[in-house]
Amino acid sequence: MRSKSIMQTAKNNQPRSVAIIGGGISGLATAFFISRRFPGVHVAIFEKAPRLGGTMQSEYRDDFLFEAGPNGFLSNRVETLDLVKESGAESLLLRSSDAARIRYVFTDRLWRLPDTPPAFIRTGLLSPRDKLRVLGEVFVPPKKDNEDESLRAFGYRRLGRRFTDIFLDAMSAGIYASTPDRLSVNAAFPAVVKLEKDHGGLFRGMMKKKKKQAGPGGVLMSFRGGVGAFANHLAEHLAKTLSVECHVGAPVTQLARTASGYRLTVKGAETEFEADSVILATPAFVSAELMAPMDREIADKLHAISYSPIAVVGFGYQRLAHPLDGFGLLTTTQAKQRILGVLWDSAIFPGRANAPHKSVRVLIGGQRNPEFALGDESALVDIAREGIRNTMDVDDEPSTVFVKRWERGIPNYPVGHLANAREIHARIGKYPGLYLNSNAYFGIGINDCVINSLACARKWGEDFYE
Ligand SMILES: Cc1cc2nc3c(=O)[nH]c(=O)nc-3n(C[C@H](O)[C@H](O)[C@H](O)COP(=O)(O)OP(=O)(O)OC[C@H]3O[C@@H](n4cnc5c(N)ncnc54)[C@H](O)[C@@H]3O)c2cc1C
């Protein structure tokens, strides 16, 4: 097989080429940060799928816009917003509607989640005793050791059982498609652990932070045309403005070390590709396969990062009496429903359905019921309709149906995850010019991926240029 070099060696022989394997937001953002900061560097992305963006995919069906994966990111971190602006996509930005601040939780019935202290005092979701237990958080001494613990153990310790089983349980389903007992609080909610560490408790920490913070918390943001429109924009910007070489339909099947860097074998390609540095922006199980011939131990640790299946079922309605007055609802484990929640899409962002049409998306599976996400399309539609009936009392026939199944959709962050991820990263550091950066390690949100991509690009720059 012939070998094509994508290397542009500098006079001082410093490495000048990067191959990024995986074109989800982690790969795209890393390509952006490196190529913008170091314009002379040759950056090439290799993506298995026919399009870039990974799980960031949006699809018009009839006159509805459905998201196959994420529907947005919070504006409380600047990095994603900066990426959007600096890549010229500001005009695509879309702020969620204010009505979408209202959120619901389904336990034995639908409850509006309290979003202010007076609403918390008034809510019937918790008994007076449970509320006192939550308020008593200020008297709970901070944890002395640095041992990892589950979100459930953390919640029971600081906020009480009932609050944990409702609020933290629903939140785990909504963000991680998981449950508090299966999530490491350190890996999934590091900022919360930091509050306890730095200030002795959550309320104490929040009060101090509030005094310092002027503006409100984050607002959910997306894009005209959905998150997929931003992924497409970023991919085009990389190719046209920053001269990044984008290979789609190009699964990397092998990665090998050479005297000066790494060689990639791409399925179906006539040539192999060489680069002096490689960033694996692939899911952990793919990175494991690519690393196995080079380092069995890293491969085993990568394989230890498991993923949960998750399915998204979208319904478009020509007519729907339900007001969809909010963001949507999440269910708790104890509610014993077959759905994780329902996002009231057309109420969250304008343009998801043309009024008076309305649309929703139902999330199924995750760690709570992985088997449900693996059913065929008609089984998923049945589960989704049953879930909407049970939680929203809606039995209307949708005019448009959208189904997306992710067999290994979301990485699991159980107790011990961070130690494993840190070991993997420490060990990969022994391979000059080789990096790992995806949602498998230090955060799964779009914001986390962008922040970690910035850190990865900085580390790359420090290693080779600074
Ligand atoms: C249903 C769902 C809903 C979500 N909702 C939200 C949300 O509302 N907000 C939020 O912030 N986050 C959300 N997330 C999480 C967020 O979307 C992801 O964590 C993030 O997009 C992951 O980006 P990534 O680039 O790390 O990984 P991915 O998007 O998984 O990208 C990895 C890429 O690697 C490619 N690849 C795999 N194997 C190879 C190979 N051999 N060679 C080349 N390429 C390969 C894949 O095709 C893929 O494109 C959601 C996720 C899902 C699944």
Task: List the defining traits of the structure above.
binds flavin-adenine dinucleotide, 21 strands, seven-stranded mixed sheet, 466 residues, 22% strand, protoporphyrinogen ix oxidase, domain 3, 17 helices, alpha/beta, single chain, Polyamine Oxidase, Chain A, domain 2, five-stranded parallel sheet, FAD/NAD(P)-binding domain, 36% helix
Tell me what the CATH architecture of the largest domain is: 3-Layer(bba) Sandwich
- Report the C-alpha radius of gyration, rounded: 23 Å
Q: Into which percentage range does the β-strand content fall?
A: 15-25%
Total domain units: 3
Strand order of the largest sheet: 9-8-17-18-19-16-20
Our measurement of the CA-to-CA distance between the termini, rounded to an integer number of angstroms, reads 36 Å
Question: How many helices in DSSP terms?
Answer: 17
Instruction: Return the average pLDDT rounded to an integer.
Output: 94
| Shape, per Cα inertia axes | globular
Are there runs of 5+ residues with pLDDT below 50, and where?
Answer: 5-11
* Level-1 CATH class name of the largest domain: Alpha Beta
List the quaternary state of the chains: single chain
- The CATH superfamily title of the largest domain: FAD/NAD(P)-binding domain
Ligand kinds: flavin-adenine dinucleotide
Say what the CATH topology of the largest domain is.
Answer: FAD/NAD(P)-binding domain
Number of strands: 21
Biggest sheet architecture: 7 strands, mixed
Strand-pairing-aware structural class: alpha/beta
